[in-house]
Amino acid sequence: MLISSRRLSQALILLGILSLPLSLFFACGNDGGGETPAPISSSFPRFAYVANIDSINVSAYTINATTGALTAVSGSPFAAGASPCSVTVDPSGKFAYVANYWSSTVSAYTINATTGTLSQIAGSPFATGDGPSSVTVNPSGKFAYVANQRSSSVSAYSIDASTGAITGVAGSPFATGDNPVSVTVDPSGKFAYVVNGFSNNISAYKIEATTGALAAIAGSPFTAGTTPSSIIVGPSGKFAYVANRNSNNISTYSINASTGALTEVTGSPFFAGARPYSVTVDPSGKFAYVTNTGWANVSAYTIDAMTGALTVVAGSPFPTGADPYSITVDPSGKFAYVANRYHSTVSAYTIDATTGALMEIAGSPFAAGWGAFSITIVGGIQ
């Protein structure tokens, strides 16, 4: 499909290709990669994976379950497609998926359960729509979804439980709003949400449980702030959070458990720092974290369990490296990790279980590939 030079320039700015040295404009979408896994009893972190958008690869690390420190996995980094900008893992921790923006593909890998090394799955990379910017896997591990930024669609795939290979779902791709940059699935696996960076709204879908196909929810799309860049649903499934890049705030919504419809909560949107990009919620559902790319820090909030409203944590915001584009919390809820694009590093923090405050751990920041952009964690059960 032909697009005007003006539209192409807009898309490149959203991707960060035409960004200033400190990436003052926003890049490809998030949210699949920084998505916090559903809570697991007696869980602990095992491996971390970082999509390096400017070095065409994925960095892999083992995580010290006591300190949260990162150690590079043997053989890391692992090859990906052009401009890998989103990384996620399936709930079992067996497979990893990376959205490659300029290749218009998803790279799929098996994860070595002992070492954390990545091996390309047969048939990988798999074709997507134009400009995939975000990838996520539903809680059952049966389906994967990819937001295609340049073709304004979301691709749906079924996942082979044995091999990790993906196959397009009938009817895919499904239409979204203008310039979709982030996709997520709620913890029940019933609903999917996509934020659209140019149309400033959220496309909401019901997921067909057997096939993984998407059907638009009544009332969709729902209004967001200016240039939304990331969406996450908290572990209770009651609330959704959207980082609004150019209005410097976080929109918070309650989710209708029957229909999946979104209603903005009282007090929303909540103030964030300059150019908030990635939002995540810890596995307990007590705390939310947002990276502010314009200020090189993370805003931390406590979440009201009844209303979903946000209250700033004492000491927030907490410093990061330059251009913090992605944040995730490990399945135990003990550690938070931030991918810093400009510094090509990962900042690591311990989380105060009572207050939600962040404290940088010894050895942080840890070296990543050029343009560390998206980060995800694999956990285990003790």
Question: What report would you give on this structure?
Answer:
This protein has one domain: Methylamine Dehydrogenase, Chain H. The chain is 3% helix and 46% strand. It is built from one helix and 35 strands.
Name some characteristics of this structure.
globular; mainly beta; single chain; Methylamine Dehydrogenase, Chain H; 382 residues; 5-stranded antiparallel beta sheet; 46% strand
Question: How are the secondary structure elements laid out?
Answer:
Elements: H1 5-15, E1 43-52, E2 57-63, E3 70-72, E4 78-79, E5 84-89, E6 95-100, E7 105-111, E8 118-120, E9 126-127, E10 132-137, E11 143-148, E12 153-159, E13 166-168, E14 174-175, E15 180-185, E16 191-196, E17 201-207, E18 214-216, E19 222-223, E20 228-233, E21 239-244, E22 249-255, E23 262-264, E24 270-271, E25 276-281, E26 287-292, E27 297-303, E28 310-312, E29 318-319, E30 324-329, E31 335-340, E32 345-351, E33 358-360, E34 366-367, E35 372-381
Antiparallel strand pairs: 1-2, 1-35, 2-3, 2-4, 5-6, 6-7, 7-8, 7-9, 10-11, 11-12, 12-13, 12-14, 15-16, 16-17, 17-18, 17-19, 20-21, 21-22, 22-23, 22-24, 25-26, 26-27, 27-28, 27-29, 30-31, 31-32, 32-33, 32-34
